[in-house]
Amino acid sequence: MKLAFNYVLKLKSLPSNPCHEVVFEAPLSDFSAVTKSEPNLVANTFEHFKNANISLNIIDNLHVQCPPPWEEHNITVDISLTKQNKENTSEVAYQKDFFRIKEKFSNHYALFTDGSKLEEKVAAAAYFPENPDRSKTTRLRDGASVFSAELTGIAVALTEIKKLTKYHKNFVIYSDSLSALQAIQSKNFKVIDIRRLYNLIRKFPTYVHISFVWIPAHVGIQGNENVDKLAKAALNRSSTSGKLICYSDLKPKRNVYPESTASSHVLTL
Hints:
Blueprint: H1 2-12, H2 18-24, H3 28-32, H4 41-51, E1 75-78, H5 91-104, E2 109-118, E3 121-127, E4 136-140, H6 146-164, E5 170-175, H7 178-185, H8 192-201, E6 209-214, H9 222-234, H10 259-263
Parallel strand pairs: 1-6, 2-5, 5-6
Antiparallel strand pairs: 2-3, 3-4
Helix pairs in contact: 6-8
């Protein structure tokens, strides 16, 4: 059942796949009526989605333009603070290290980003220390991953940066998400939101440079504390953004039923 669940999730995100039309546009009765004695894969999996209260209509389309691999981008990623062992490093030591990094980027317009999740609720924020009123928050659809929230926070920051490129050319984004910054650094275009980030960046004027810097969370760095509060507050917003969810974010929901229940079904094509 898990394999079928994952297959349907990914197939939903690939509308150009030849099987997409067969699975999602054919009447469900066509699948259910194969035989009464042999439940088939599609009918059983759709029933699983229904019982788990998962809507396939919220799944994002994977066909987002991939930036040309030969294209250069005016960005740098600094994760030097990860060299320290957080368990053996005091908050004061981290704060001193941050101020040294902050001095290095003293001629950059600074932003802080963060993502937050509480149960099914997910939100993201971008904080502007020089102009707090410009700070932005958004609540994602329920069930999105923290990783997606972190990348959404960075996307919100980049969207605002685009409006500021007439007045500034150097920007620094501080984030406590190592996985997000490593995905940006490695140009992991398998991640749809990384493609979107680079598609945003490649539209900036060529004189604009963006630095991404990893900072530890909850060690008293004021900008990080402020953006964390913004992201947590956004969890209580009544409405969510229209942003669709990457199919992989919904994979944990496949464990809604006990393994024994899922394996009890005989699946046939």
